[in-house]
Amino acid sequence: MFEKAEILIVDDMPEHIAFAGTILRNEGFRVLGATSAKAALKMMENSKPHLVLLDIKMEGMDGLELCRHFKSGEETKEIPVIFMTSESDPAVIKKGFELGCCDYVVKPFTKEELLARVKTHLEIYSKRRKLEEANNELSLFCSAISHDLRSPLNVTQMLADTLKEDIRAGNTEDALKIASMIEGKTAKLITMIERLLSFSKMCSIEPEYETLDMNELVSDIFDECKSAEPERNITLIEGSLPQISGDDVLVRMLVKNLMTNAFKFTRHRQNAVITVSAIPDESYGVISFRDNGAGFDMAYADKLFGVFQRLHLDEEYEGSGIGLATADRIIKRHGGRIEAYGEVDKGAEFTLYFPK
């Protein structure tokens, strides 16, 4: 967890930034430095660090006022702030805690003291975020289960009532048809529940990082999908992909979901093409999955990664509405993100960002 964290150090003395930065980089942290509140606010527009080390006494806007800015911003209010101070005035420290700082270190501090505080608050921050995500997903699950599982259950109940009437009336042929429909509905429900359970288990899985050859992994999964539909005329165009650090099982599941999606939504193309390529980036290993299939309307893009969210009818393309939600969760567990772009009847593109 810690080697992936980014820390912003704000201090108007460059030598203080250099001292703390060296300690943190040697522990595997990524470090940003700002010598003024203005520079720090500018950095925050483009990058959201996992923790801020903030000097209290600075020229211009001081650390207390900058902390107030951070804690009033919707995107920055949860980021832990540790004050660095050369004094231990109880009134100043008290003011810092009132503004939302989580801790402080008194200069000059030791390597051990700084690392203990930083690691403790990063761990608290990480656990709090996971708890919030779990609570949000629990809320989504409750809503999804009540709507998406209740609907087929109601239909099954109605079919069961009709089946009883047909049996009483001796309509064997109609009863067999109804029984077959019930069987189909039940099978679909079982599949939905199994995928939902698989999705929910992602919460408790901690990634086991190793270096992954993405060219080999993508080719393996394409061949696996192609073997299930050997009659399809579908081509994989694969560029030179970066190696990434990730959990082999989870990343395979992620790629399998994207590849399965591409196979499904190119089904009506005579010459289906899936293009997997790398996009140069300094901070991330970026991989794009693009197809020439059904695509989607960008007006509904925000629904793509929700549980049981689907943009196409069952009659057009089968599915559980959990695949992309699973992909989104896996990439987030790796500290990355997934972006989507689509055009109706022209295709879709999903871009994965794995931290380097």
- Structure class: alpha/beta
Number of strands: 12
SSE topology string: EHEHEHEHEHHEHEEHEEHEE
Give the fraction of residues assigned to helices.
40-55%
CATH superfamily grouping of the largest domain: Histidine kinase-like ATPase, C-terminal domain
What is the residue-mean pLDDT, rounded to a whole number? 86
Strand content: 15-25%
* Sheet of most strands: 5 strands, parallel
Please state the CA-atom Rg, rounded to the nearest Å.
Answer: 26 Å
Strand order of the largest sheet: 2-1-3-4-5
Explained architecture:
The chain has 356 residues and is of the alpha/beta class. The chain has 3 domains: 2-109, Response regulator (Rossmann fold), CATH 3.40.50.2300; 135-204, Helix Hairpins; 210-355, Histidine kinase-like ATPase, C-terminal domain (Heat Shock Protein 90). Helices cover 49% and strands 19% of the residues. The chain contains 9 helices and 12 strands. It has helices spanning 14-26, 37-46, 63-72, 90-99, 111-169, 172-201, 214-228, 248-265, 323-333, and strands spanning 6-10, 30-34, 51-55, 81-85, 103-106, 210-212, 234-238, 244-246, 272-279, 284-291, 337-343, 347-355. The strands form 3 sheets. Strands 2-1-3-4-5 form a 5-stranded parallel β-sheet, with helices on both faces. A 5-stranded mixed β-sheet has the order 7-9-10-12-11, covered by helices on one side. β9 (272-279) and β10 (284-291) form a beta hairpin. α5 (111-169) runs antiparallel to α6, α7 (214-228) packs across α8 and α8 packs antiparallel against α9. The mean pLDDT is 86.
